[in-house]
Input
Amino acid sequence: MNKLQTDVLVIGSGLAGTAAALSAGASGKKVAVLSRDGGASAMSSGALDLAGDLLTVPGRPELWSNGIAKNLEDILIRIPDHPYRLLGNSSEKVLAKIKTAFNLVFPAGNGLVSGNFANNQLVFNQLGTFKATACCQTQMLSLDDLRDADQALVVDFPELRDFDAEFFRKNFESWSAQLGAKTKLSIRKVELNSGFGKTSLEIAKAFEQNPESLDRLSGQLKGINSPLLILPAVLPGKTRKEILQRLEQETKGKVRELLGLPPSVPGKRLNQYLEASLAQAGHLRIIGKGIGNNSQGNKLISVRAKGDTGEMEIFAKSFVLAGGSFLAGGLVKSGEFKEGLFGLEVFQHSRGLGNIFTEKLTSLRVTEPHPVFSVGVKVDSEFRPLGPKGEPAFENLFAAGSILSGSNYIFDSAGAGCAIATGFSAGEKLSKF
Output
């Protein structure tokens, strides 16, 4: 069995894991990151949420609260054990930590993410509806883009199976009218001559591997003067900037993408960005899955992992668990709820779950969030997971991201903010141990 020694081992390379690794590395620690080849970040639509309106009225966006500070304050008041509580007892303190963490993971000029920390923006998706989000990948279609555009053109790839341009048009025109934009939409079919139906990921791969695909797209749009050109999310990360610039030159207007449907091209772009950030920082990324651990008393010594080249043992002084919750496989239920790698206790708010029936954590009322999505490990003020008696399970194990109990990202729209800020904070805390 191969053996590896490092100062810090981070399990998970999503938003939380990347933030933890970059934060720990900034203090001079030698960092290794254990992750699967692709993870939950690939499920991202292209939006990075910080804080939504807990009292959102469905179908009435004019009544939504888009002020991030206000939404944060509501979360702190209404959800006392929310992970944001670990960052501070006021929206000002929490927002300051989020900003610091975001600037570490997405520094100025990063080229991928744009947005602000003051107000959520309304960003459209491939269904023709929209969501309120603080940040998203650059040049995604938002309500602001419609203010001065009475006419717009959407590109329809007949090969693309996960985008129906006519369905999008009907929804888009209805919602844009309700939002006061009243933009009329035309559809332009563009044939890529692939011969077969394709997913967004396959179309993006074709653009990346075949330059003639871009020529074909550009050629069919050349000479069309449109103040706003809309694309489904199909542009690969490596050539996205080039394609957008070229299309804006051809059409003499703005070019915008839509939020993707997971697994999405924007999610893949986010994964690629996070991987590049870890590599640029000099952190070793190990492709594999944790299968066990070794400890002495309440101190972790190593994690055993299995990858394509066999098993290995990774020794470290500190460990950060940032592998996600149910959707990412970080939490499991086999007779009882447990965290999968270290066997940590799982909580729903302040209550340990044990072998509670799954039915108790799901709701038959569609207007309410399923409690199962808010379960996770409970941590102390140092971000160390707690055991059944409220003591740290291991003195040198820390946790961050969606594996923390208390946050229901479907309900509070705080997924990205929680992941990045708690990951950053866990990386800071471990420097003391």
